[in-house]
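Q: Hi! First time doing this. I have a protein sequence and I read that you can turn it into a structure. Is that right? Here it is:
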Amino acid sequence: MQTETTNLIKWQKKFNTETSCINHLIQLRWADGFICPKCNHNHGYYSSNRAHFECASCHKQTSVICGTIFHLSKVPLLKWFWAIFYISSDKGGISALRLSKLISVSWKTAFHMLRKIRKAMGDRDSIYDLSGIVELDDTYIGGKKPGKRGRGAQGKASVLVACENHDGYPGYIAMKVIGSVSKKEIELFTKQNIKPTATVRTDGYPANNGVQGNATLEKKVTPPEFVDEWLPWVHVAMANLKRFILGTFHGTSLVYIQEYLNEFCYRFNRRFWEDQIPLRLLTLCANHTKVSLA
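A: Yes, that's right. Below is the predicted 3D structure, encoded as structure tokens:
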């Protein structure tokens, strides 16, 4: 479904006060009129001073931000809306330090805002399964440490990456941090992210047999210099991911890598509708249940 396009000028005009943000959020949540979440009554009274509705039947009071990722947040909606624009309008993303300066909040507040938004991004993409021809491989993300490189390297997170190959063009992607590159992990990833009717191309690593039983497996043992011919787009996605993390964030803690993967995949999967992403993401955040961070 197509969404309205936007840019910096349009966003500035549309969301320039707290009231404009509240009114837009109300429209997103109750486009056909307020519905009480407790008794489903279709009439309520709105209090602009407290930004909540009171049901005309059961008198339950419902905050405009209740049941969204903004739930219980003390940060004004205006700053939330602008955080959503900044994280979604640039394919390089935005660091917490940069965001904190742009919207005048502490680094810690900006960091937690970005984490919640990335969680919503990941939950949204989790409902899609890759189909057709799907390339699958693993990579390692993390800081440089002396010693072994590649599989088994310390201080790095193992990441499974899958990318659709649509007649020589990349389609949707999925990425997941895993404990180790094992048959069991690949089996679970395939079940969660790839349709059973898909054909999955991999290299000759034995753990890739985990695809079997959940999708059609095509394995090929390839020398390093020819691997990009067999799995071209999944390696392009890996390279772009590493540039994204190193370029904007200069690395990341292993604890938060999945959240950065969520952001990267969300934007990559909507790359043909870049000017729609900010409003798509805003709608997602308005309809997403509250996020609890570990």
